[in-house]
Amino acid sequence: MEKFMDLQLFAVTPSASNTFNYTANDRDKVQNFGKLLEPGLRKIFFETYDEVPEQYSKVYNVHDSKKAREIDWGMGAFGDWTKRTSQFDNVAYKTLSPGLERVYIHEAFTQGFMVTREMYDDDQYRQIEKMPKAMARSGRAKVEKDAASLLINGFRGEQTGEEAYRIYDGKALFSESHPLLDKQGAKFSNKLTGVLNDVNLKKALKMMRETPDEAGNPAQFRATRLIVPPALEDTAIRLVGSDRVAGTDLNDTNKFLKNYGLEIVVLDYLGAAAGGSDTHWFLQDGSRHELNFFWRVRPEFKWDEEFDTFVAKYRGYMRYSFGVSDWRGLIGSTGTTA
């Protein structure tokens, strides 16, 4: 009976001697295994998240937000100034057309994993450390995939049933009929269908230069980036970097494209393998475009431990929004016609 009572006491009152110096205080307060793992797993998470350079930030304006949503307003444009014919003429004041609202609503995203006490006790750290790596990579992929989706779906929205893909003016991001607020009945196209070749790239460059403001005047946009999926990387390099006209037997110089200064940006998540297209290609004015990405909460890594189950939980959390406030500064081609 005395031995039985000792066993009861052992079960009810852990001590340094009967827990291999892993006391209730160690477990439940300062030195619990979840907290011991947390610094290393946190480091692994953030190192993995940053192990490959970001791609989306090469084509988006990236901002931090402190609000539940961000709102942009477009404005009309001033037309030509009025000639002053008399020294007593009044100034011709103009009211700009009210623009349309662009709303960015931040969405939250989470992911997590759990570590049991037995996993920790049995020295499975090599397995445990794979979890934050996998979680970080999936979070990184989510951001890149979402950012690329705006371009991937940029040709959708013109058909009935595709309203969700329309931008603020009721058109697709890449449309043949963007209306101009201060030039009644006028429309402009920032959409092409041609494959990426010498002729079509020059056509797109010209289209960018002819982009009008809301009053119909040339806004003097200039393409600085050629954005392509991996399948078009080689084609893009040949077009932009070759001394001669690419894809022909001619001896014509390629000085125009070579000296234009286009930066080639390859986005892995634009390609068909990631759910996109291997034919789409885009031009962007890098200094004046309005592709915007708002971070409400950048990726974070935190943990907690359940008292009764000895399960340590680790989770990631991030919150962001993305969209477009103006179609200008962007030209897109489906790349479907020769």
Index terms:
single chain; alpha/beta; 5-stranded mixed beta sheet; 4-stranded mixed beta sheet
Distance between the termini: 93 Å
Structural class: alpha/beta
Rg of Cα set: 29 Å
* Main sheet: strand order: 7-13-10-8-9
Order of helices and strands: HHHEEEEHHHEEEHEHHEEEEE
Shape: globular
Question: How many β-strands, per DSSP?
Answer: 13
What helical percentage do the residues reach? 25-40%
Low-confidence stretches: 1-12, 18-23, 26-31
Number of DSSP helical runs: 9
- Assess the beta-strand content as a share of residues: 15-25%
Average pLDDT: 84
Main sheet properties:
5 strands, mixed
Q: How is this structure best described in words?
A:
The chain has 338 residues and is of the alpha/beta class. It is built from nine helices and 13 strands. The strands form four sheets. A five-stranded mixed sheet has the order 7-13-10-8-9, with helices on one face. A four-stranded mixed sheet has the order 1-11-12-4. A two-stranded antiparallel sheet has the order 2-3. Strand 5 (178-179) and strand 6 (187-188) form a beta hairpin. Helix 3 (33-49) packs parallel to helix 6 (130-152). The termini are far apart.
